[in-house]
Amino acid sequence: MRIRVTDHEGIEHALEALEGWRVMEIIRDWGYPIRAECGGACACATCHIYVDPDWVDRLLPLSDEEEAMLDQAFDVRENSRLSCQILMRPELDGLHVTLAPA
Amino acid sequence: MSTQPIRTDVTIVGAGPCGLFAVFELGLLDLKCHLVDILDRPGGQCAELYPEKPIYDIPAISVCTGQELTDKLMAQITPFEPTFHLNQMAESLEKTADGWWRLTTDIGTVLESKVLVIAAGGGSFVPKKPPIKGIEDFEGRSVFYAVRKMDQFRGKHLVIAGGGDSALDWALNLQPLAASVTLVHRRDEFRAAPDSVNKMRALVAEGQMRLEIAQIASLEGADGQLSGVVLKDKERGEWPLACDTLLAFYGLTMKLGPVAEFGLNLHENLIPVDTEKFQSSTEGIFAIGDINWYPGKLKLILSGFHEAALMAQAAVRVAYPERKIRFQYTTSSTDLQQKLGVA
């Protein structure tokens, strides 16, 4: 399984992904710049990403908590998510996300 | 501003769980502690990031929240009467002529101690700054992330950005003295005290405050003086809003800050320590918890507790080299039990 991550310079990287890992953890594990300060507790909004529009509907919808936490993110768009709240599963093989400005 | 130095055995930078437990371990060895923290209350990340979230990996406590852990630690260290210096950031460090560490905070508190313990976690909690092009040119003059003196905003045309308690509280508090207040938030829902939200909505209904459901796209102005912000949303595109001051409240983030300038060796913004004493590259300066690094380091609260215990054994030998240290158990030592106020 892989995810595709577009970094702040617009360069796309294909990252090996494991089922059950949070997308945030995959990005962090590969060493790309994502602060993820709260470590995945949906409590800081520093793992903000944009999900490729083709993939938005394939994700589980945002919880109220995630929606509220996005209040502390910048340039929030319709496809904004916190990457700590997306768990990898086989159907997400190929998921494409873009790191949000921080 | 500077005040009379306070002399104590140990100064601890950071009042998170590891800093608090260090007070306990140091206290059992008769060392008095002063703690410095930028937040307005003890607890660090436990209090700021996840006060209501469950923690499951504290030994012998199946589950507790960040706030409960903080409360329990505060109760546990009560016998040692630590002194807290809150709402201030450890800013500079020097060594006195007689070999004490002199730590000065950003509001001028001066602490002198034989031992310094850095338990600063991920660094200081500071306001998040919006990644808007050129915003730094306006900071401190017409863009602010905190309110120190309300009167500074008298007669100003304010844009207040954010949807939490800080944004709402300041919008309500500044509304009577500002020339105008526009609250800007990305959605028409606010995670703030319901009473504040009701008051804000009443003012908006009366035309005393404006509410824009939008985000800030860019800033306009020159020489540090804002003349307006450009707002955006998906339906309406972008539009200008005149103002002379922006207050942005997007929560807090962690920055290592001045600790980086303390002259210690750093490894990717962490303080390398040995695993016997948890001492930094400088004798008498220890680092415990998330801020330290050693091979195999795990950023867990329980690791920080272990580090605090070993650090304390080394710290007492630095502070009182002449003292003979006896290793004792709280279960059996009347001496320790007296210190804890239970014997």
What features would you describe in this structure?
The complex is a heterodimer of chains A (102) and B (343). Chain A has helices at residues 23-29, 53-56, 64-69, and strands at 2-6, 12-16, 48-51, 80-82, 96-99. Chain A has a single domain (2-86), classed as Ubiquitin-like (UB roll). With 102 residues, chain A is an alpha+beta fold. Helix content of chain A is 17%, strand content 21%. The model of chain A has no long low-confidence stretch (mean pLDDT 96). Chain A has 3 helices and 5 strands; from the N terminus they run E-E-H-E-H-H-E-E. By secondary structure, chain B is α/β, with parallel strands linked by helices. Chain B has 2 domains: 6-125 and 253-339, FAD/NAD(P)-binding domain; 129-250, FAD/NAD(P)-binding domain, CATH 3.50.50.60. Helix content of chain B is 22%, strand content 29%. Chain B contains 7 helices and 21 strands. In chain B, the strands form 6 sheets. In chain B, strands 1, 2, 5, 6, 7, 8 and 20 form a 7-stranded mixed β-sheet that branches. In chain B, strands 10-17-11-12-13 form a 5-stranded parallel β-sheet, covered by helices on one side. In chain B, a hairpin with an 8-residue loop joins strand 3 (54-55) and strand 4 (64-65). The relative contact order of chain B is 0.16. Classes of the chains: A alpha+beta (102), B alpha/beta (343). At the A-B interface, loops of A face loops of B.
Summarize the structure.
Chain A has 102 residues and is α+β, with helices and mostly antiparallel strands.
